[in-house]
Amino acid sequence: MSEITAPKSPVTAEQFADEIREQLKYAQGVTVEQATPADVYVAAAVAVRHHLMDSWMQTQHDMVNGTTKAVGYLSAEFLMGKQLRNALLNAGLTEQYNAAIESLGFNLQDVVDTEYEPGLGNGGLGRLAACFIDSLASLGVPAFGYGIQYKYGIFKQEFDKDGKQVETPDYWLANEEPWGHIDYNRSQKVSFGGKVVKEGGKKVWKPAWSVRAVPVDYMVPGYASGRVNTLRLWSAKAEDEFDLLTFNRSEYLSAVKPQVKAENISKILYPEDSTKEGKQLRLEQQYFFVSASLHDAIRVFYPGESKPDLTTLPDKIVFQLNDTHPVIGIPELMRILIDEYGYDWDTAWSITNKTFNYTCHTLLPEALEVWPADLIGELLPRHLEIIEKINEQFEAELKAKGVGAVTIKDMAIYTGDSVRMAYLATYGGSHVNGVAELHSQLLKDVTLKNFSDVYPDKFTNVTNGVTPRRFIKLANPRLSDLITEGLGTDKWLSDLELLKGLEPLAADDEFVRKFAAVKQANKVDFANYAKREYGFDLDPDTMFNTMVKRLHEYKRQALKILALIARYADIKSGKLSADDVMPRTVIFGAKAAPGYYLAKMTIQLINNVARVVNNDPDVKGKLNVYFPWNYNVRLAQHLIPATDLDEQISQAGKEASGTGNMKFALNGAMTVGTLDGANVEIRERVGAENFFLFGMTVDEVDKLYADGYGPRKYYEADPRLKAAIDMVADGTFSNGNKDTYAPLVSDWLSKDWFMTLADFHAYTAIQSEIEALYAQPLEWNRKALINVANSGYFSSDRSISDYLERIWHTGPLPALA
Ligand code: CRA
């Protein structure tokens, strides 16, 4: 860990208030009296940026002039969450800000509430990237996050009157966005299309069109490190705004066509990729940000040099490829080195190989990108040539190592028809890592087995982590205070393993009661929040049981909802008296990909189960289901600290890691989960007796597939499962319409690819264990506290330390004077 401590900001609350006043007057043109909370938010954000400026410049200076290798984290997603509170915390300005805002006559929360969350990511992968750049800065390691400033982030989710998901565009830049600085003077040109010609024996790419990549810089302040790194998100602009000749012919729309085409590149996060056009746009995005970032790094590290010695590039910066999305960076760096700087192939390959590493985040084959070769050929003809040559070299290398012809064919990076980006990344970089022990093992044993046989040393694991600053300190101030009280220090915020010191306190009933009181107060807070934001009436005296994550079949929201329906069916049939039901509030949060039919139908089902169950007097309010729409980082920060029981119930071998599981354990929720992803490591650390484990293991899943899985057998054998599925089929949750969920029911009974039915019995069986423990609040909270005490390992600071040691081989900048 870094020894650097933050220079205590000398600013007083009065000065901070003056800075806000000045900004309001000279930049925004409003008096304090005229100002709205939104005005004050912008002014406060600008004031915070000003306070970070010296550290930002110093960090860049030390990075470029020193000998510490920097990290470039290339990621198509950065799901940052709101910035103001986090920046204040990390800059040590929270108290001054609070006092200043109040002295100006504003309510703190009103001001913070005006900040609009940028949704520049889909889920875990994007949020992980945000945690990682926070930790890099907090550890004092010089780093760039490189990505795209999408104009529209992930869609805004609403539900229609039938409970169906409706997607609306999320125009997060509708109001002034004070954090990003657009740096027009440091733009890069990125080119596409055209053809490769031979000129004087050299291959020359003659592109057909180009766009201008303009960097938008976000400061990334480290917590108590005095260091501020950069998140550089590229925005696409046209090289020429419009064609005046066409415009003068009154063809106004045609005149702006090139502009539209250019700006489309950074218009939207992950466009649909089921059409040819969508695919092409996605590849354009990937190449756009990667090409701009690589050129930018050369500009930054070799300032003003027309003939830089790029053999030193791997000593200046190491690039991490966050999944396959930035992998086109490998042929792009080859192209830059060979075509732009005149290096020979072998030198270029050696530089490239040392500069890149690849993190794989999935085991689902459909998430490992494969590009049609003709698409790459059309859009990036020179890159396709380079990829072909890389593949030739690769095959020769394999042959020399004695690998058989069949295996060589299996391992092809370029098959003639397509390019396998995960294979290109594995061969083209120095290291490959999975994101949890189990996942890394499965990568070696299954997904990338051939590669791990030939290059065993490339493979390693780095288990994911989450930043305790945002997800404990900011999200859960009550728990933070209690932890600090229990440990007698707040150093845990930069050394999370210190939480271990709480373990003895689990034997102290007084402390456990305080811990329980924190959870209860958080539940009351969340109930108020849910009332205000969604109009829900949550009862904080029931168990809060949460399942939040993207909606995907493998994550098995269906398992949760079927178990809930089974319990409802028990009440309806009189098998169970509502009086004997432990009161439970089940809270779902999930977005489904717009084109994912069964996932969207599951959302509709959950909403309608909520409607029916919450309004049935027979249930006597014992079971309640809520589905707050538009799950995002903000909602996570409110909901996670208020949760008693967290659901991590994916089919074993499908969830690469999960990071929600870590956030919940750190906030004192108990977990019900399968042996999947990082659940395995959480359980190992918190102790098997403090984790509700159920369900098949990876081996059992594999065996069942091999033996031939038939879900109907489970339906026939388990009357409760049958009752639940029958209820979905018979129209109970669709106003009598039997067709509404027919595709879902038919999938469960005939395919059930992720074996929801096979795990149903185990899942419902563990509920009695859960409820027995919940009936003893002191014992429940003791176990929950043990979870907190033993989850320090899941700090993203630890993940980053692992990357530094195992993959990046660099460390913090020298301590600040
Ligand atoms: N969907 C995995 O599924 C993992 C995150 C971050 C995911 C999660 O289990 O925690 O990555 N994979 O490592 C992914 O995005 C393309 O693959 C995810 O967020």
Automatic annotation (TrEMBL):
<keyword id="KW-0808">Transferase</keyword>
<dbReference type="InterPro" id="IPR011833">
    <property type="entry name" value="Glycg_phsphrylas"/>
</dbReference>
<comment type="function">
    <text>Allosteric enzyme that catalyzes the rate-limiting step in glycogen catabolism, the phosphorolytic cleavage of glycogen to produce glucose-1-phosphate, and plays a central role in maintaining cellular and organismal glucose homeostasis.</text>
</comment>
<dbReference type="InterPro" id="IPR035090">
    <property type="entry name" value="Pyridoxal_P_attach_site"/>
</dbReference>
<dbReference type="InterPro" id="IPR000811">
    <property type="entry name" value="Glyco_trans_35"/>
</dbReference>
<comment type="function">
    <text>Phosphorylase is an important allosteric enzyme in carbohydrate metabolism. Enzymes from different sources differ in their regulatory mechanisms and in their natural substrates. However, all known phosphorylases share catalytic and structural properties.</text>
</comment>
<keyword id="KW-0663">Pyridoxal phosphate</keyword>
<dbReference type="Pfam" id="PF00343">
    <property type="entry name" value="Phosphorylase"/>
</dbReference>
<keyword id="KW-0328">Glycosyltransferase</keyword>
<comment type="similarity">
    <text>Belongs to the glycogen phosphorylase family.</text>
</comment>
<keyword id="KW-0119">Carbohydrate metabolism</keyword>
<protein>
    <recommendedName>
        <fullName>Alpha-1,4 glucan phosphorylase</fullName>
        <ecNumber>2.4.1.1</ecNumber>
    </recommendedName>
</protein>
